[in-house]
Amino acid sequence: MNFPQFAFNNVRRNGRAYTGYLLSSAFMVMIFFTYAVFIYHPEIQRAPMGKMTLICMQVAAYVVFVFAIFFVLYSISAFLKSRNKEFGILMMLGAQPGQINSLIFLENMIIGTVSIVTGIAGGLLLAKLFLLVSTKMIDMNELDFYWPLKAIALTASCFVALFVAISLFTLLFIRKNRVLELLKGSSRPKREPKVSIWLSILGAILLTISFVALDKDTLSPKVLMIAAFSGISGTYLFYSQLSVLLIRLLKRNRRRVWRGTNLLWISEISYKLKDNAKMLFLVTVVTSIACISAGFVLAVDQDNKQQFLNNKFAFRYDVYQPEHINAELATIEQSMQEAGIAFERYRIDSIGAMLQNYAHDPTTGSDVEFVRASQFNELAALLEVEPLENLPWQTAVAVYPDVKRLPRQPLKFEGTESSITIVQEISIPQLGGVSNAGVMLIVEDAFFTQLTADLSSRPEYLYHVPSWTQLPSLQDEQSKIGRELYAWNQQQMNGCVADCLNNILTVRSDKYRSTKDTTSVFSFIGIFIALIFSISTASFLYFKLYTELSADSRTYHALSKIGLSSGEMSAAATKQIAFIFFIPIPISAIQTLVVLKSVLGYMRISHVYVYTATFTVALAFLAAQTVYFIMARSRYVKALQKMMV
């Protein structure tokens, strides 16, 4: 038997450990390859969403590759630690350090080669399905299958370089160890986990700082950096210090701990938490990033749909150059008349104003807009509110799109001496179809006319199309007319000279489609990234269990001699595995909820969507983790049962 055959037999005989690693690596190669298939498709550049989709796919491919580097590095280091005793025996039998290094290098390259071939082969089999699903999700024209020679070359070269570099780097893990240390392997007795009360308190403080920082109404890069640093640092201290301290406090409750096999698995958990702190920290961070990304896209998509359904007006035409009103209104209406679309047109005269001694919102341009009561009443039925009657002089009814509120006291505005007192408040979920301002103040017609003496007013026209109530697809009439009118208005604006403010047409379907196209691309990419993160985190946990299998086998073998049954062993081992597998999920869910609530609240997205998105994503990760747990637990317990007396 020559040296390459010896390396091949080592891989084959350690199939239980290498199977999960090989499949996870092959899956990463397959995902990277499918992205490359999409990137190099000859028709992608000509598609409507092609350029943006191409950029997003390229970024996703880079993310997959960078994550693959850390995954392969961690996996190989875990395997090497589990085989220390084997390497020690080989060195006692006369193997030179160079031969050990060559053996490790050959084994890694065998695994890498099989992963690359398997991943590319799987990607070729699924390429047509991938292109079909991707175009459906992104709402693009169907892409034909082609032979992706460039994608094959890119994938093979990238991952060959990755496995070669990582294999050479991991040789450093063996060269510094002595033969005696290698022979001991994982049989050395563990010391009682040390816990620092001060570090535990620091971890709790850091987590509190992160939550408090994200609970602020205004988010800035500095606040986000503070929250990220304190949250990540606090998470690591939670696993390495605080959780072990909590387990130690739990062990003081003898009535609970000294019942059945509780003492066995609770005592072991404190060791496993301390030993696996870095791994659990990594799994939690990766899961949190995936949950936050997926939850953000899901919440934005839900909010986008609801904004469209709440907006009763297909078009809003803001007038800044009155001399072009008649011609441009005729163009807008002609496009609908030629298509046989019935519509209703409404006019609103508005006055933009800034409040005195008030924190202005830079996203709205003006704090409030004054609107005539008579014109608002014409829209009341569409907006599903009651008409307003008999408004007293210098009073207003405030219409809010969200939770923002103005004080009920005389309000002063810049540019006029008139003051306003709010006497009634109305909440309309989506005011963007009518106004861009944060608040709309409805005033009596005569008082509105008085305000025009100090503040300038401008008209805007709203178009309601009764037949356009459903979410638009890419090819339906609403989207086609909306795209044509939006392109026409953009041409008008491009022809405007410097310091010129043209009339602006806001198209409801265009805003919806623009956001939907973006979220569709990120949803499609996020699904595969989340799959990689999910499978990789499960692999991390499985590898860690495998490295501890020999030590656990000796423990349960000794306990079985003094009466521990197979059922009791299975129950204790299951609780330990479940604790390690599932503890990152609630931690990640809490972090996701805190981050999304802050970020999406700043974007004025309803908290209902935040909770829904967080629950949906956390439930999906929990379901996936449950499947991995059942598989890992079955193999792990079966291996332990072989050691029972």
Summarize the helices and strands and which ones pair or pack.
Elements (H helix, E strand, L loop, with lengths): L2 H11 L1 H25 L10 H33 L1 H9 L4 H42 L10 H22 L1 H4 L3 H6 L12 H18 L6 H31 L2 H4 L4 H14 L1 H34 L4 E4 L6 H14 L5 E10 L14 E5 H11 L11 E6 L10 E2 L6 E9 L11 E5 L1 H7 L6 E7 L12 H18 L9 E4 H40 L1 H13 L4 H17 L1 H19 L4 H35 L4
Parallel strand pairs: 3-7, 4-6
Antiparallel strand pairs: 1-8, 1-9, 2-3, 2-8, 4-7, 5-6
Class based on secondary structure composition and strand pairing = alpha+beta
Please tally the helical runs, counting DSSP H or I stretches of 4 or more residues: 22
Strand order of the largest sheet: 5-6-4-7-3-2-8-1-9
Q: Give the N-to-C terminal Cα separation.
A: 37 Å
Helix content: 55-70%
Looking at the chains present, what oligomeric state does this protein adopt? single chain
Largest sheet: 9 strands, mixed
> Which outline best applies?
elongated
Radius of gyration: 32 Å
Low-confidence stretches: none
Strand content: 5-15%
* Quantity of strands, as a count: 9
Mean pLDDT: 78
